[in-house]
Structure formats: C-alpha cells, structure tokens
Amino acid sequence: MAAGSGSSDRSLEDTATWAVAIVCAIFVVISVVIEHGIQSLGKWFQKREKKAMFEALEKIKAELMLLGFISLLLTVGTKYVAQICVPEKLGNKWLPCEKDLKMLDDDKGKGGHRKLFTYAAQEMVWRRSLAAGTDNYTYCTDQGKVPLISYSGIHQLHIFIFVLAVMHVFYSAILVALGHAKMKKWKAWELETSSLEYQFTNDPARFRFAHQTSFVRRHAGIYSTPALKWIVAFFRQFFGSISKVDYITIRNGFINAHFAPNTKFDFHKYIKRSMQDDYKSVLGISIPLWFFAIIFLFFNIYRWHTLAWISLIPLIIILLVGTKLELVIIEMAQQIQDRATVVRGAPLVEPTNNFFWFNRPQWILFLIHFTLFQNAYQMAYFLWKWYEFGITTCFHEKLYAVMIRVFLGVGLQILCSYITFPLYTLVTQVSFELFNAHSMHE
C-alpha cells in the first residue's frame, strides 16, 4: 500500500526522463499548433483586407493572454494563498453547498459519478506533490483554522478559468459563423436590386400612396396601437424577422441619406463591414463583465438559487433587445406614413437616433455583448461543476432545472447570433452616429 502511494506522488527526481520529455513535448506541440493556427487566420484576414476581423481576432488573443496570466499567477501564488488562514467559523459561512448535504452526497456514491470524498482523497495526493514532501498543506489545520482557499480549491479554479476561456472563444465563433450565414441570405436580396424588375418597381417617376407600399402595409395599420406594436414586435423576432422588403427599404433610406440619388452602392458589402466592426465590441471580456463574474461567484450561496435567477438575465435582455429592434422597424413604417400621404419611387426612411433608447444605439451592442458573455459563463460553470463534482450533487439539486437552463442558454445563443445581432447591424444603419463610426474604418 505504501509502495503504491509512493509511486503515485513521486517528484521529477524519481520520474523517468523519457516520460518527462514526452509529456513536455505533447504540451509544446499543442501550444505551437494553436498559436500557428491563430497567426495563420490573422494573416488570412490581412490578405483579404478584413481589418475589422483581424482586430477582433487580436481581442480574442488578448483575452487568452489575460486568462493565461491569471492562471500563471494562480500557479505561482498557490502556496502563499493556501497559507492564508481564517477562523473556521468564518470559513464555513456563505458556502455554495451545505456541508450536511455534501456528506449525504458522498455517502450515496451513485454509479458513474465521482464521490466527493474519493475526489478529496485523490486531490490529497496532488496537494502532497505540490508541497514537495513538506507539511504546508496542513499549515492552517495545525493552527486550528482553515485556509482561505485550499490547494485543491486553487487547482479547481484553474480548471474553471480554462473552461471559461474555451467556452467564450467557442461562443464567439458561433456568433461570427451564424452572423455570416445570415449575411448570405441578404446578399441574394442585394443582387436583386440590379434587376430590371426592381428598377421598374422603384421608378423615381412613379407615385404611390404610402399605405399601399409593401413596407408600410407590413408594419403599419393595426400595429399603430402601442400595446399591440410591442406584442407584434416580440413575436416577429422569432417569425419573419427582416423580410426582403425591410432590407430593401432600409437600404434605400441609407443610400438616399448619404449618397446622391440613384447611386449604385453595394449596401450588403457595407453591412458586412459594419458587422465586422461590431465584432470588435462584442468579442473579448471587458472590465464590467469581469466584475459581473466576480459578483456571481460571491453570491453563489447555497439556497440563494443564484444560478437559477441569474440565468433569467440573458433571457430578458435578448428578448427585450430583439423586441426593441423590431419595434424600430415598425416605427420607421409609421414615420413614412405620417410624413406624406403619397411617396415617389421607393419609400424612404430618414436616419435618426431617436428610435433607440436614450438616442444611444450602441447601448444595445453592450447588452448583446453582455448576453454573449453570460451564456458562455453559465455553460462554462455547468461543465466545470459536472467535471469536478458530477451532475447529481448538491450543486445541481434538480437535474431537470439544470438541463432547462443549459438548453435555454444554447437556444439564446443561436437566437442572438443568427437573428438579434444581424438585426442590430441592419437596423442601426438608420443611425447617423454609427454611420460616422463605421465610416472611419473604411
């Protein structure tokens, strides 16, 4: 028994050099491949003159570097943090899992799930390895206190940071991929603007009643009632968000406001560049988002159900943002109808910031950024808890509630990436402020 224990926690002095070299080589090769892949992607963006996408990639690299520094500091400071001792009474306050319930979970030991006592026993070997034969891991216990964070706790925090980084990069990739998929659908509409049928339908010499135009018929009329407008806008983000007539009308209004009439302008290409500029704002983890992550960890207390109610935040935000953006389109149609009874040629919308909350369309982008991080954070937290403690522990008291939150988070990510974010990019083209911002990057 002792021999087995000694062989499992031996140091590098007692480890074969070929084993050390192989493990080191594997990690080096994986790191080099990832770095080379990122550099190749950056060179491809530069070659294709995708400046905004290259800057977005740089933000992701900066995020990974920051998380790497955090991990490095945790590694270097493990010994010193674990030797910060606090009274046991204070250390047992505000626990994420009730101690009695934790003991019960250990006793159950359901098949297929790691028991916490077994996990603790395995981690003790890791602690002793870190201690390098010393008794540092009992430093606080010998004083009748408990460590601020134990060796194994810091190790688990390491894993959480890694999972968070992977999930945020993965969710960012989903946002980019689905956003570009939506753009391909709009490209077909842009090509139609060069057809003879389109030019005949939007002949500048043609007069029509405003309420007879396709755009006004789709969004005005009975929808002029405030309460009904919000209801219609809420459901339209799921069914029929951004039709061809919406795209064409916003396109015509944009060209008429910023260029000479009948100018041949590739609006789809401009929208694509605008979306790439927006990627720089929604990718990466900003200081306010780090603050939120810390607040969540602070208030993740047993029976407070923090994870349950905080999962409602991205749901409320993304539905509210999607509804507001659809409502902006309805207000555009109402503006056309109120401005003139008869329109000449294509119906035009006038760029203004008044459609948006506090006349600040960029605030919507921050809410989308927050939702992206929130979804990635919740998924990372779920996967980390599952990996470290199993799926049926006191951290996940009701499995069905956990699975609902997981599927809800995935659904919200798809909704945000494929509908809400592209919708924001298109609708905000009626904003003078964002037009000037995007023009500086041309």
UniProtKB/TrEMBL annotation:
Sequence intervals crossing the membrane: 16-41, 62-82, 157-178, 282-302, 308-330, 363-384, 404-427
InterPro entries assigned: Mlo
Domain of life: Eukaryota
Gene Ontology BP terms: defense response
Keyword line: Calmodulin-binding, Membrane, Pathogenesis-related protein, Plant defense, Transmembrane, Transmembrane helix
Localization, UniProt: Membrane
Membrane topology note: Multi-pass membrane protein
Keyword Transmembrane: yes
GO molecular function: calmodulin binding
A Pfam family assignment: Mlo
GO cellular component terms given for this protein: membrane
UniProt record similarity statement: Belongs to the MLO family.
Record's function text: May be involved in modulation of pathogen defense and leaf cell death.
Domain topic, free-text comment: The C-terminus contains a calmodulin-binding domain, which binds calmodulin in a calcium-dependent fashion.
Name of the protein in question: MLO-like protein
Lineage of the organism: Eukaryota, Viridiplantae, Streptophyta, Embryophyta, Tracheophyta
